[in-house]
Design brief:
14 helices, mainly alpha, about 260 residues
């Protein structure tokens, strides 16, 4: 039997979760199901945009099946949708009820603060994992049907990488919310971090002198290893998971020790 607080969190967030899952699914299906029709547009885009811009966006190869899938699903919009979902759902765990004055009712449950924070995080993490796994589940079905010559193990590697990226930012967002109790702080910190680390990966890929920046970006560990071409990279995936787990653990400890607005 799942804890009552986990079930309540899922009930409260179910519409948002279904909405995000449907949006991510629609995005994935549109771009992959019409692969052959989009190929013409991809060729025009690759010819029209400067090489530096394509390198910056991480979509230098849009004509091969793996390059097309990376450019459309895993380069920018796909991760953006998943991270927006992760950040907004995580902001609901601690920051939203505290900011809206509903924390007193939630803390009335016969739970320690650590257990309370852990269950809220577990519920949000499960929902975020479901949404982040939507591209993986759909691509495993669609890729063979549309004739994309990509090993399904490589597709799985990229899909799992997207889930790991979501976990990483979920941990950071939870830490920001647990430490501040403010949704604005969660959105600002994680949003700025996502943009700056994406820029760091892009700049590192364009300039040899800044190549070291890639190690500071979660996006490098997610897609910088080019899993659609090269397959699994367990060390990079575990790095993302470890960052998220450590950030979440620190968030639980900080929530347990600070004064909470009720």
């Amino acid at each position: 039997m799942l804890p009552a607080l986990v079930r309540k969190t899922w009930r409260d967030d179910r519409r948002a979760v279904f909405g995000w899952a449907a949006g991510v699914a629609l995005f994935t299906v549109i771009y992959t199901s019409f692969y052959s029709q989009f190929q013409g547009a991809a060729e025009l885009k690759q010819e029209a945009l400067p090489k530096e811009m394509l390198d910056f966006l991480g979509i230098a190869d849009m004509l091969s099946p793996a390059g097309y899938l990376q450019a459309t699903i895993f380069s920018l919009i796909g991760p953006l949708l998943v991270l927006m979902c992760a950040i907004t759902l995580t902001a609901r765990t601690i920051a939203r009820p505290e900011e809206e004055g509903g924390m007193e009712l939630l803390l009335a449950n016969p739970l320690s603060r650590t257990a309370f924070a852990g269950q809220r995080l577990a519920a949000a993490g499960a929902a975020i994992t479901l949404v982040a796994a939507v591209p993986l589940m759909l691509l495993m079905i669609i890729v063979p049907r549309v004739g994309m010559d990509i090993p399904l193990s490589n597709v799985a590697a990229a899909g799992v990488g997207l889930i790991a990226l979501a976990w990483c930012f979920t941990g950071v967002a939870f830490l920001a919310g647990a430490a501040s109790g403010r949704r604005g702080t969660v959105l600002t910190i994680t949003g700025v971090l996502a943009v700056t680390t994406y820029m760091a990966k892009a700049i590192a890929g364009m300039s040899d002198g800044w190549h070291w920046l890639r190690w500071l970006s979660p996006f490098h560990y997610f897609i910088g290893t080019d899993p659609l071409h090269t397959g699994w990279h367990p060390v990079e995936l575990l790095t993302l998971v470890a960052v998220g787990a450590v950030a979440a653990l620190v968030g639980v400890l900080m929530f347990d020790r600070r004064d909470v607005g009720v």
